[in-house]
Amino acid sequence: MKAEVPKDGNRIEDVSGEKIVSSDNERIEGTAGVDELDETEARRILSKVDYRLVPFLALLYLVAFIDRSNIGNARVAGLTDDLKMKGLQYNTAVTLFFVPYTILEVPSNIILKMMRPSHWIAILMFLWGVVMTLMCLIHNYSGLLAARWFLGVAESGFFPAATFLLTLWYRRYEVQRRMAVMYVAASLAGAFSGLLAFGIQELEGVSGLTGWQWIFLIEGLVPVALAFAVWFYLPDSPETARFLTQPERDFLVRRLAEDTGSGQGQVTNQDKMGRKFIIAGLSDWKIWAAVIIFWGNTVGVYGFTATVPTVISGLGYSRANAQLLTIPIYVFASILTIIFAWWSDKAQTRSPFIVAGFSIAACGFIAQLAIPHPKYPGLTYGFLFPVAGGLYCPFIILVTWIANSLAPSSKRAVGMALLISVGNMGGIMGSNIYLDREKPKYRTGFGVSLAMCLAAIIMTIVIRFAYQRENAKRMKLLEEHGEDAIRARYSDQEMLELGDKSPFFKYTL
């Protein structure tokens, strides 16, 4: 019987009797159950995966982002006053998180590829939950620095692990909308963090603890509890998913193997982590170029997230109202992120949406620099919306764009971790450009963030041109020599290990 399995867009292809790559890198015949699955069944299977995987990862990322950024809410609740912090000490505490966070992301993803993702992510969550909970006991600036360092160690591997895990389940023009739902949790984290902080700081004085101590205590116990759920509930890969039938598992593996972008050749997610893939992931210049685009996001986002409650309170609002007024900003950013992700997947392109997002953010930063603070508090507050929306929406498109362009999965694991790792160094800069002495205008913070947005736009165009040129070269090669002649040069295993260097691999633009 012939089966029609959906490929890119609406194009379908007969794969009757074709072999797929198993976990031991051998070829196995497709089962009759797989052959009988049609496009409607494909949507049904992906819906099962969606309900099991995406909301859970979104919840975990929401918790992770709250825990790394709640220092901004703790500051408004009196942290800096109680610890007698002065000058740039707060900026230093925010910055210190990113040092181990940056260094350890690549090693973390290498470990992830060697063990069950559910177990590694659970270990990370438990550790950062313990650190966050113990932050309620700090009583001086040195203790805060130590706690932020170990929080960075524990959280370093989560986001690279979560985004890589999604690429093991979905094809290139399916994964971004799911990744966006997860990442929206980062936008909502700002809203939830403000709302939670508003409520939690009302516990001021209970059991002898201050408001900011209660923030750390309560928001730290949540990931400790969730770690146990992750260990048993989070699925690791289509090959081992117990909530799917065997034909459903085979079908997912098959369609992922055929997702090269050209309709020819195959890729694999079952490769074993090795030295050559680590080197390939670390040496791809396009990943390093994409880091600059990543900095356009992290410089603005981490500085903005840690400072926006203070910016709003500097406009004449009370501490409590400043916490609440952050919520609509992050809700707007979440909506814009989802719209951009769905639109980009539908258009099957990435770079134009990255440029559009940073252009929106640039307009917001220009307005913040032009408005005479705090003379027009309503106008100043209003232009915080395009800043947040424009910064958040291109980020997940960039991560997906690079993930779409890396194969096999071991190289993708290293390359994605490298992008996120070095990219998060922008958080170090972002944490030190919003200076207390400049509030409420923050000219350095807004100015540097604007410059990084413009640099991100330029580098996006450069990478698109590089991918476009490589696609044209491969198309010309296929036209001149033909598919059979090219296949004859490599064994099946060699072709799989070529990954994104395969003549059949087409880069997403």
TrEMBL record:
<dbReference type="InterPro" id="IPR036259">
    <property type="entry name" value="MFS_trans_sf"/>
</dbReference>
<feature type="transmembrane region" description="Helical">
    <location>
        <begin position="414"/>
        <end position="434"/>
    </location>
</feature>
<feature type="transmembrane region" description="Helical">
    <location>
        <begin position="212"/>
        <end position="234"/>
    </location>
</feature>
<feature type="transmembrane region" description="Helical">
    <location>
        <begin position="351"/>
        <end position="371"/>
    </location>
</feature>
<keyword id="KW-0812">Transmembrane</keyword>
<feature type="transmembrane region" description="Helical">
    <location>
        <begin position="119"/>
        <end position="141"/>
    </location>
</feature>
<feature type="transmembrane region" description="Helical">
    <location>
        <begin position="383"/>
        <end position="402"/>
    </location>
</feature>
<keyword id="KW-1133">Transmembrane helix</keyword>
<feature type="transmembrane region" description="Helical">
    <location>
        <begin position="285"/>
        <end position="304"/>
    </location>
</feature>
<dbReference type="InterPro" id="IPR011701">
    <property type="entry name" value="MFS"/>
</dbReference>
<keyword id="KW-0813">Transport</keyword>
<dbReference type="GO" id="GO:0016020">
    <property type="term" value="C:membrane"/>
</dbReference>
<dbReference type="InterPro" id="IPR020846">
    <property type="entry name" value="MFS_dom"/>
</dbReference>
<feature type="transmembrane region" description="Helical">
    <location>
        <begin position="446"/>
        <end position="467"/>
    </location>
</feature>
<protein>
    <submittedName>
        <fullName>MFS general substrate transporter</fullName>
    </submittedName>
</protein>
<feature type="transmembrane region" description="Helical">
    <location>
        <begin position="53"/>
        <end position="71"/>
    </location>
</feature>
<feature type="transmembrane region" description="Helical">
    <location>
        <begin position="180"/>
        <end position="200"/>
    </location>
</feature>
<dbReference type="GO" id="GO:0022857">
    <property type="term" value="F:transmembrane transporter activity"/>
</dbReference>
<feature type="transmembrane region" description="Helical">
    <location>
        <begin position="91"/>
        <end position="112"/>
    </location>
</feature>
<feature type="transmembrane region" description="Helical">
    <location>
        <begin position="324"/>
        <end position="344"/>
    </location>
</feature>
<keyword id="KW-0472">Membrane</keyword>
<feature type="transmembrane region" description="Helical">
    <location>
        <begin position="147"/>
        <end position="168"/>
    </location>
</feature>
<feature type="domain" description="Major facilitator superfamily (MFS) profile">
    <location>
        <begin position="53"/>
        <end position="471"/>
    </location>
</feature>
<dbReference type="Pfam" id="PF07690">
    <property type="entry name" value="MFS_1"/>
</dbReference>
